[in-house]
Design goal:
single chain, mainly alpha, Tetracycline Repressor, domain 2, 11 helices, about 65% helix
């Protein structure tokens, strides 16, 4: 009687915090923040939802870990780097977080950085100001100024204008050309091909202003 060969059994990949976090980020990018659920995540992980709760007792705990993972991808220049170069690099790195995780960045944009990883990020960037001789007040003001700019730019670039019209009845191209010629004339510079040039122009202008204020003791 011919011997029948058994198909090799595939072991289920063990569940771990890192694997859950990566799958959760992928799920948010696929379904959006409102489409996220532990049930869907469990389906992606091929496990029971209760198995996820063993590692993360709530959605808030899991999202904290997802923020921590994203912040952990930011690379900082050494402490002895010039302050302006260090800030430019750090905020450029943070912008890349939005590009890697555009849907989840909607959550990060309003996340209060009071977790250990969030405070670590704040310590890193505020430390650049303090090592350069900025006062605590200046450090706070300039950090928030740069953050406003970076977050707004990142949200717009990854989820805003370039995604197409939001209106239920968008104005047709011919009507726009007739009635809104100025808007149409600058339209090409609103497209993704101009994002980097616009972003770095604005970032450098802000850094110019900060440097000028710092030199004049403002």
């Amino acid at each position: 009687m011919p011997r029948t060969s058994k198909k090799p059994s595939h072991k289920r990949e063990p569940l771990s915090r890192d694997r859950i976090v990566l799958k959760a980020l992928a799920l948010v990018e696929r379904e959006g923040l409102h489409g996220f659920s532990f049930r869907k995540l469990a389906d992606d992980l091929h496990c029971e939802a209760m198995s996820i709760y063993y590692h993360f007792p709530s959605k808030a705990h899991l999202f904290d870990a997802m923020v921590a993972h994203c912040l952990g991808t930011i690379e900082w220049l050494p402490d002895d780097a010039p302050w302006r170069a260090a800030l430019r690099h750090g905020f450029t790195e943070f912008r890349q977080v939005a590009y890697r995780n555009p849907a989840f960045f909607h959550f990060m944009a309003l996340y209060r950085m009071n977790s250990a990883e969030g405070l670590g990020m704040l310590e890193s960037v505020l430390g650049i100001f303090r090592r350069a001789g900025f006062s605590p007040e200046q450090s706070a003001k300039y950090f928030r100024l740069l953050s406003y700019y970076m977050v707004g730019a990142a949200l717009d670039e990854t989820s805003g204008y370039a995604k197409g019209p939001s209106a239920a009845e968008p104005v047709s191209d011919d009507v726009a050309a007739r009635d809104y010629p100025t808007v149409v004339s600058v339209g090409p510079y609103f497209k993704p091909g101009s994002f980097d040039d616009t972003f770095f122009t604005g970032l450098d202008l802000l850094l110019d202003g900060i440097e000028m204020h710092h030199k004049h003791g403002s």
